[in-house]
User: Fold this.
Amino acid sequence: MENTLEGDNYFDGDETQLKFQKAILKLPEKQRLVFNMKYFDEMKYDGIAEILGTSVGALKASYHHAVKKIKKILVND
Assistant:
């Protein structure tokens, strides 16, 4: 699959990664923090809750909203 994408003239991984990073930067600060900790750092909600001093439920909601916003930004750009 990777070789197919890399060899595809219509797919530019660097451009996609740049759009993804720009979408993350458009998130409100708390959603960006939660998204980065969960997605990139692969932290569990319990650990994030301890660091940020908030509930697991609130974190799950923040992550869910962040993912929806990122998808919307990527689709519309």
